[in-house]
Write a structure and sequence with these properties.
The structure holds 2 protein chains of 2 kinds. Chain A has 5 helices and 5 strands; from the N terminus they run ββαβββαααα. Chain A has helices spanning 22-29, 86-93, 103-116, 122-128, 138-156; strands spanning 2-7, 10-15, 48-51, 54-57, 70-72. By secondary structure, chain B is of the alpha+beta class. In chain B, strand 1 and strand 2 (28-33) form a beta hairpin. Classes of the chains: A alpha+beta, B alpha+beta. Chain B: It holds the Pfam family MoCoBD_1. Chain B: It comes from Runella salmonicolor. Chain B: Residues 218-296 form the Aldehyde oxidase/xanthine dehydrogenase a/b hammerhead domain. Chain B: This is Molybdopterin-dependent oxidoreductase.
Chain lengths: 157, 724
């Protein structure tokens, strides 16, 4: 079935099984590899992306759900590689990633969270971001989200 | 990364390369530098100390530096970047002797077609220590060759040439490394130059951020799972959901009908659904009707009982004085406890898998592996090609923790690719990651001590039962024959280091019906949990402060005791050990000695809704020379978080012949909400760097257990720690 949606500002047209998880469509049909496969059951958050401004775990969302909507992956989060999104900037400044595999999902979850909670407390961050990281970057992720909140506020002043 | 490798692939005589370091100018091999000396010395030392986990190490890692047209230096690493930050550490070391800025060094994974080999692999927290000197020697040789050539061209003495950021100057003469490197084809390899003294280090000892930050925060396709070939197919393997299960009946008719499925591979025990996309392959797998022959449907209690002190073969690995007879003589003075750690798995975030293309006379595999040289030979054998015809393109790995040393899964991927005749992408589902893994072995420990008058510990014995971690992988069981037990890995850390006159450690080697292997910090994890928990219990029993008791037990005179003492005293000060605790807080301590590094932690916990919550962790690590303190802090934080998972949540259970965990909801991980305040203090106890990735994991679980006891009076002796 042909499905149309917007991906990172561009039109995507795919002819796939409408039940196919959006994750595989984005990764393998559209060749955008930042969105990761971790568990296939919406438990780890490695596949987090945005659909119409909401964060979704794309391994458990059929591509049909995205029809006619706006999908953003990490590749589309920043304007360009030279002008990174405050989340990515904060991730660089706090030297967050170890293996790096889960980080795109964390950054997408955090970016969406900050849009809704521009000035979160540490407790807000800890209870709202529920992705999984095995390398143990959690302490730095918390710091980076706080820093990104500051960066975003400075940017909007 | 993959494209960069391809672009820089050069022609050269492979023979010259083996077991050597190479320097490449303009695509021509100009120097072959034997770096055997330092590596061999290192291995000999390690062998003497019996403290390296990989016994198979007949060759040494080799080095590949290339001067590129933009005057940057390409370093092809035989070591896997799996999150430990090794690319950054190696770039720092190379930059010191090359006299270039860190930004001028690019690090990529070496592929095996380059000829650079490394049968030692990546692991055991060995890389920095083993390459610390050799990589600088090869880098210094490259620098001196370029300087000598510039001196010859300019007619000036070598000694007068200054180098900064890869630009050489002498009087009015000036040239970049690249310009000089392309100016001749006649090169001589000098004697290995003297290395810079540590006082002249520009980067070593400074906080440096990861050099691979940018690709990781922009989501570049650097992992194995991201790799593609034109016309690539996707496959998912059928794997037994039962322990020891073998295929009895198979019906793939319905699977073959699934839209997008192009082939069902059936080759003896190997069954896989091959499709145009991953979704179709997974749907096909669900339609396979399989019946399994299960020799025994294991239940948790009987499976756990397989690992019990007294079963299997025993090897005494430590024996000082006569602890057993002292214990026998004084049954009333004996204190004895048992501890258990469970079967567990690596649960790295990128599932296991590879991308392979097997053609008529050549084969390529993209895979994140800790042992590319080993993979090359075993996979070549599995698909019946010459070793030289197979190129392993190592990719960044999405975590590993010891899992990516085993090549069996990749061998199957290669066999599928060979049968299909097209490139194939094969990665596990998360359920397969839990049910078809190589497991951290379960352990059982019995510790006994004789408590003398005044509370002195007169004798102590440690009996540990465990299946092996590495010996099963050694051909023809040479390991067992020579060593009797896996004391380099599973038994690592089982000996009692405390200054107690009569002490012994005995390993009971058990067999399990699942494949067990290396897991971050190997034997240090269970052994430190058991021994340090026991020491904490002894402190309580004898009415001593656990930290002071440890200091007393170090009253020997060895050099290591001085380092221990400093670590413990620093820990006492920084953690506020002697300060009063807040209400509702319990505090515990543990220390471990691993890969010559010493890691100790004081941990504070609270109980919230009958759950153990870790509030504060103070870790002191003496890992010798700290090459990148920032990198070390990251590793200690990571090991702390992994240690919290291992202490509070992690463990596999078995029911009706199956591993019950199918996904993360049944195998929980520490999350942001589990993150305590973490303070890391780095001490430098030596001029050489020691291991960093594994040591700080060991003290976490016993320190948490001790803190729980401090708060509740309950001694929890089984991991994961549960209050009820």
């Amino acid at each position: 079935m042909e499905i149309n949606f917007n991906i990172n500002g561009k039109t995507a047209k795919v002819d796939v099984d409408p039940a196919m998880p959006l994750l595989w469509v984005v990764r393998d049909e559209l060749n955008l590899k930042a969105t990761k496969f971790g568990c296939g059951a919406a438990l780890c958050g490695a596949c987090t992306l945005h659909i119409d401004g909401e964060a979704y775990r794309s391994c458990s969302i059929p591509v049909s759900f995205a029809a006619g909507k706006k999908v953003t992956t990490l590749e589309g989060l920043s304007e360009s590689e030279d002008k990174l999104h405050p989340i990515q900037q904060a991730w660089m400044e706090e030297n967050v990633p170890q293996c790096g595999y889960c980080q795109p999902g964390f950054m997408m979850a955090a970016a969406n969270f900050l849009e809704k909670n521009p000035n979160p407390t540490e407790e807000d961050i800890k209870t709202n971001i529920t992705n999984i990281c095995r390398c143990g970057t959690q302490p730095r992720i918390i710091k980076a989200i706080k820093r990104a909140a500051q960066l975003s506020q400075t940017a909007t002043l | 990364m993959a494209t960069e490798e391809k672009k820089t692939k050069k022609k050269f005589s492979r023979r010259k390369f083996l077991q050597r370091g190479a320097i490449i100018f303009g695509g021509t091999v100009v120097a072959v530098i034997a770096s055997k000396g330092p590596i061999r010395r290192f291995l000999a030392q390690k062998a003497e100390n019996m403290d390296f986990p990989l016994l198979v190490s007949t060759q040494e890692p080799s080095f590949w530096f290339e001067v590129l047209p933009d005057n940057t230096i390409l370093y092809k690493s035989t070591k896997l970047e799996m999150g430990q930050g090794i690319f950054t550490g190696l770039a720092m070391l190379a930059a010191e002797e090359l006299e270039v800025s860190l930004e001028q060094i690019k690090v990529v994974h070496a592929n095996t077609a380059n000829g650079v080999e490394d049968s030692l692999g990546t692991g055991g927290s060995n890389t920095t220590l083993s390459l610390f000197k050799p990589i600088r020697e090869v880098a210094a040789t490259l620098r001196e060759m370029l300087k000598a050539q510039a001196a010859k061209q300019w007619g000036v003495p070598v000694a007068g040439i200054k180098v900064e950021n890869g630009i050489m100057t002498s009087g009015n003469h000036k040239a970049t490394y690249y310009e000089i490197s392309t100016s001749t084809k006649e090169w001589k390899t000098p004697e290995t130059p003297a290395l810079k003294p540590s006082s002249a280090f520009k980067y070593v000892g400074k906080d440096v951020k990861r050099i691979d930050l940018k690709p990781k925060v922009t989501g570049q396709p650097i992992f194995g799972i991201d790799q593609t070939f034109p016309d690539m197919l996707y496959a998912v393997m059928l794997q037994s959901p039962y322990i020891g299960g073998t295929l009895k009946k198979l019906n793939t008719q319905e699977a073959a009908k699934v839209s997008g499925v192009v082939k069902i591979v059936e080759d003896n025990e190997l069954v896989a659904v091959v499709a145009k996309n991953r979704y179709a392959a997974e749907m096909g797998l669900q339609k396979i009707e399989a019946e399994w022959d299960v020799p025994k449907k294991w239940q948790q209690a009987e499976f756990e009982a397989l690992t019990t002190v007294g079963l299997g073969t025993d090897v005494r690995i430590q024996s000082e004085g006569s602890p057993e007879s002292l214990l026998e003589e004084a049954p009333n003075q004996i204190f004895k406890q048992e501890y258990r750690t469970p079967l567990a798995t690596h649960a790295h975030m990128e599932p296991h898998g590879a991308v392979a293309h097997v053609e008529k006379d050549k084969a390529t595999m993209y895979v994140g592996t800790q042992a590319s040289t080993l993979f090359r030979s075993t996979i070549a054998k599995a698909i019946e090609v010459e070793t030289e015809q197979l190129n392993i393109e190592t990719t960044y790995a999405g975590g590993s923790f010891g899992r990516r040393i085993d090549s069996k899964h990749s061998e199957k991927v290669a066999r599928i690719a060979k049968i299909v005749g097209k490139p194939v992408h094969v990665f596990n589902t998360r359920t397969q990651e839990f049910q078809n893994a190589i497991y951290r072995p379960q352990t059982h420990h019995v510790l006994a001590a004789k408590i003398g008058k005044n509370g002195t510990i007169e004798a102590i014995t440690h009996n540990q039962a465990t299946p092996d971690q590495v010996l099963g992988a050694i051909p023809a069981n040479i390991g067992y024959t020579l060593l009797g037990a896996d004391f380099v890995s599973a038994g690592h850390g089982a000996s009692i280091l405390y200054n107690i006159e009569h002490k012994s450690a005995t390993l009971w080697q058990n067999k399990l019906p699942v494949h067990t292997g290396i897991w971050r910090s190997v034997g240090m994890f269970p052994n430190t949990f058991a021994i340090e928990s026991f020491i904490n219990e002894l402190a309580h029993k004898t009415g001593k402060d656990p930290l002071k008791m440890r200091l007393e037990l170090l009253a020997g005179n060895e050099q290591i005791n001085q380092r221990y003492k400093k670590v413990l005293e620093t820990l006492a000060e920084k953690s506020g050990w002697n300060q009063p605790k807040a209400a509702g807080i319990g505090r515990g301590i543990a220390i471990g000695n691993d890969r010559k590094s010493i890691a100790a932690a004081v941990i504070e916990v609270a109980i919230v809704d009958n759950q153990i919550r870790v509030k504060k962790v103070t870790q002191v690590l003496d890992a010798g020379l700290a090459i990148n303190p920032e990198g070390i802090r990251m590793q200690v934080e990571g090991a702390t978080m992994m240690g919290i998972t291992a202490a509070l949540y992690e463990g596999l259970t078995i029911k009706d012949g199956q591993i019950t965990a199918t996904n993360f909801h049944e195998y929980p991980m520490a999350k942001l909400s589990d993150t305590p305040e973490i303070e890391v203090i780095i001490l430098e106890g030596h001029a050489e760097p020691y291991g960093v990735g594994e040591p700080p994991l060991a003290p976490v679980a016993p320190a948490i257990a001790a803190a729980v006891f401090d708060l509740t009076g309950k001694n929890l002796r089984t991991l994961p720690l549960k209050l009820s």
